[in-house]
Description:
The protein has 486 residues and is an all-alpha fold. Helices cover 83% and strands 0% of the residues.
Amino acid sequence: MNNALLKKFVSSTAWSFISAVATKVSVVITGILVARVLGAQSFGEYGLIQSAIVMLANVAAQATTTATAKHIGQFKEVSPEKTGKGIALTLIFAVSFSVMIIGVALFFPLFFSNIILGSDNLKYVSLIVVSTITFIILSGWTQGCLTGWGQYRSIATINGIIAIVAIPGTYFLTTKFRLNGALLGLACSQLLIVFFSALACWKTLKEKNTTLSFKGVMTEKHTVLSVGLPVLLTGLMVAPMNWLANKLLAETSNGLAALGMYAAAMQWNAIFSHVSVVLGSVLVPMLAATLGGKSRKLDALNFLSGWLVVLIVIQPVIMFPELLAKLYGDSFLGRDFEITLILVILGSLLSAFKSGISRKMIVMDLAWYSVMSNILWGILFISGALLLREEGAVGIAKAFIGSQLIHFLFGLPYFIYKKILPLELLISPRILILWALPFVSFVSSSYIESTLYRLMIVVMIFVYIAATTFTLNTMFNEPVEIGNPA
């Protein structure tokens, strides 16, 4: 690919990946330690609360991050005044959503603890949960600002240091206070992220001579209406479905233990899916800045970079799922957890490819399509969860990957018609073979007992992916056409 584009992409994503690895690896390690202390059943309770936090906080944080980063990337070189008003509006957007959640928890405490968190015995931890939700949403805004200005190193440094502190801190609190301690550790780590990110954001705004201006912010309402709101609603089509599926599973016989397995598997889905979030933080501003031009190379980077990274990192997990089961403790051992883990991370591979479509639609102002299409996904997922919930964690995992696949296939005609997804990135024989590799790993892990033979297969798969990536790099090696900022 064009050296200048590739250099910019690599330099921008390097620190973002460090940040992502620090954050998500910290989450997984902490999850393993918490699971070993709590056991599968109590970890299932923890997983249900986490799904509520994701439903109420992470989707709002992602919407705020995306809208803020896109606005800054689009206007930072054009108008400091528009930039300041836009990010002020996204701050109002974030705070308003946080206040709404706090209001529900304060005025309807039993509803919040019993319905949302899953048990009336949890009403005393509602304050911790609400605080965590608020901190996550605010960190979405601060890190969106840093992302838009390209301050990836600052984000990586903050997240890395806090991740190092969070692991032993949360483990200590969990051993002392069990479930309450695990939740308190999560809240404290998010508070630290908000505090240090806000300091870095304030410093960056001063360096860029950009002032937050709340006067006349509605002149930049497109920032929320065309990006923030549809991304939020898209997330609100997804996260509540995951939360509802968790509740359905928890209500079955031995449901909390099964939910503990599913929650543990979803932690790995989160770390792999976060690759797309990292790339989105870099690619959305790049795509927004070149909206007026057509770049075949940027399209390839957008669709293939995150997908190829996830394709590589999931191979050992699919090949050796029993090793991860041992990390979580005796209550997670068995084929049920292994199959659940494999199905869930296959879903993360599909999500990585679909994320390229979502990023393209955001910069083309087609994000509202995602809101509508995710209604279909939600219906499919919950229907599958209802039908298969008696199969436990494996049943919910089947519903998860099945709904993802049907949803993707249903939207393909629209993506091709609107020229969102280049056809050459879909039907290329090389890419179709790459799609088949996870299934090769799955079959190998199921029927080959020898660790040495499985290792040899993983190495061969890595070599093939590397060779194919080099070929694809050559295929898309054409001059970049840069357009004017939109």
